[in-house]
């Protein structure tokens, strides 16, 4: 049985950037690239956790990054302020990464 299609790390990063940096919806990016939304959510979670934690130097920034990731997962897409919250989360993540 085949395990499915394999994608390069670069492809995954670029796909996730379309969501996080450019503000496209997961559904829209998944349809355009011909991938499942489940894969895209998984890559986003995987890359956001690794990127922030790996570049952070202090325990405080690691704790903040984990809290941001948890808050992102708890936010429901149907929430009227979802896009605003995501913009704030992205800005804070960039700030945390720049603290290194």
Fold topology:
Elements: H1 9-20, H2 26-33, H3 37-55, H4 59-74, H5 82-98
Helix pairs in contact: 1-3, 3-4, 4-5
Note the beta-strand portion: under 5%
The dominant shape is globular
Secondary structure category: mainly alpha
- Total number of distinct structural domains: 1
Number of strands: 0
The run of helices and strands is: HHHHH
* Average of pLDDT: 75
- pLDDT under 50 segments (min length 5)? 50-56
The residue fraction in helices comes out at over 70%
Q: How far is the first residue's CA from the last residue's CA?
A: 44 Å
List keywords for this structure.
single chain, 100 residues, mainly alpha, 5 helices, 72% helix
